Hints:
Elements: E1 3-9, H1 15-31, E2 35-41, H2 45-51, E3 58-61, H3 72-80, H4 89-96, H5 98-107, E4 115-119, H6 120-125, E5 133-136, E6 147-149, H7 156-162, E7 168-173, E8 178-185, E9 188-197, H8 205-209, E10 214-217, H9 224-240, E11 246-254, E12 262-269, H10 279-286, H11 291-300
Parallel strand pairs: 1-2, 1-3
Antiparallel strand pairs: 4-7, 5-6, 5-7, 8-9, 8-11, 9-10, 11-12
Helix pairs in contact: 1-11
Amino acid sequence: MTRVVVLYGGISAEREVSLSSGIQVVAALREAGFEVDPVDVGRDLGAVIAALTPKPDVVFNALHGRFGEDGAIQGVLDWLGIPYTHSGVRASAVAMDKQAAKALFVSAGLPVAPGRVVSIQELEAADPLPMPYVVKPVNEGSSVGVEVIRCGDNRRAEIVRRWSFGPMALVEEFIPGRELTVGVLDDRALAVTEIRAVAGTFYDYESKYADGGSRHIIPASVHPDVYAQAMDVAVAAHRALGCRGATRCDFRYDDTAGEPGRLVLLEINTQPGLTPTSLLPEQAAHRGISFPQLCAWMVENAACRG
């Protein structure tokens, strides 16, 4: 029987999300017939390595955020020679760095939002872009720290005062319209989902993970050309960064002047959420893939450079 260690929890701002993902994955893999050992990852790397001794057949990486999806744990697993799910060191590190990922998307000819990286001091001093614009951490996920600055909004000083994501921030043009997402399993896009936040103005952390925080419309009711474009761009983004396994691309779709409108790639997630409200399992189910089948596919496609 294949022995799988599930790493979950972690020490990032997304720890609670990872705990939820891990609990789901452990149950699904056991249902699929694997021998499963869950490991709640904390700050003691030595304890993590000890939990991986003797070596399991595969590590299922259910960590989110820094140290879990930025190449750090991937490097450890490569060093130990243990196959693991999702993307490797390089793709994980680049995807987590929004500006680096954006540069590769541009070089691949993919549509992205205009923007730039600024210092927090520069943000506090003046608006770095015409309003409305978005402020986001360079190296976080799950919409942690994301703020939308609209016309007449004077929250820059407050945002800077509360900022805990390093000396720099990524600012981008705010794209009006709808939120879309596409899951990818290696070379296959699953579906296009439209996400409608129940409260608030954008798909923030609360909308993502609170029960009833958002509505998911699958398949998204958009122009057929845009649907096809979103599927193609998601696969192209996956390939541009050298990702493997499962990823999910997030988009804004500006149809405010009518369809077909403008599709903009926001980011790629190399560790898509696997919680009860997550989008990738929902899209897999839409394509006839149960959650245990999805998790088993990830295990069967695990790899490493060790």
